[in-house]
Amino acid sequence: MTESFRRRVVGLDDVGELTAFFNVCEIADFGSPDYEVEEVRDEWADLDLDADLMVLEGNDGRIVGTMTVTSDGPAVFNASGYVHPEAKGRGVGTRLVAWSEERARTSGDRGSVDRSVLINWVVATNEGAAGILRSRGYHRIKQFARMEIELEKGPEAAGLPTGYSFRPFDEERDLPGIYAVVEDSFAEHWTATPRTYETWSKTALGSGYEPKLWAQVFHGDQRVGVAIGQNLAGYGWIKWVGVMKEYRGNGIGLAMLRNQFERYWGMGIRSIGLGVDTDNTTGAKALYERAGMNQSRSHDAWEITLEPASESDPMCQDELVI
Fold this sequence. Notes:
This protein is of the alpha+beta class. Helix content is 30%, strand content 32%. A 13-stranded mixed sheet has the order 7-8-9-10-11-6-12-5-4-3-2-1-13, sandwiched between helices.
């Protein structure tokens, strides 16, 4: 029988099955799962699942691959895909990449711009995926790594320089000010685009929100640094550690990081991670290493500029027989 892959239409009721699929792929790549159902549900809430998510299934109805495309500003798109480990080498990845390009070309988020920039993210060690992207004209531009630490004993106390202090977090009072520090401290971050307070707060207060893991550092009456952690089903994820530019170099970042470790330790959470641009010009990766964290996973960003297509890529149709 000829093998065919078809697009499956999915909805929020399918989040459990897709989460399990993502974790199968994560285990194959890294040896451990990486997703919780609620986390995926939160991400899907911001997607048009019919337009932004491609799910492919085989003749037996089992999922063989997925691709998600999101907008990151006018005419800039991010794509992230998975191919089931048993389906690699069968054309699934090529079709998913082709679909992501078609989605970026036709998205209404392009505005009046003809050309679109698409960034496809792949596991850094996945040579097969890299080959597909290279053959289609992509070039590698960045690598992002996950830094992790497993706490085996109570962490070293967080010591701030003289004149600086931690202050308790109150959501209603402090959220707007913390938003301002996060936006300021990450303004130089690669692909950083301004976010509205409403957009940022929805993300900040979403899956894993735990007020005990929100820290803020003041110098006098000035809020100069923030650290925000999440509790993801017993795994600690530090979403933001940011210091305003004019206050960097004083040890505030390291103190906030160690303070996060203390907070997680007090909650009984031992495994902690965060993400970092390995080319970060502020020295963030070295800071995390000084705090005892080690790189555990890495993903490469591959970029292409897409010209308007005169006709749809045939690889993007609803059924592909190979």
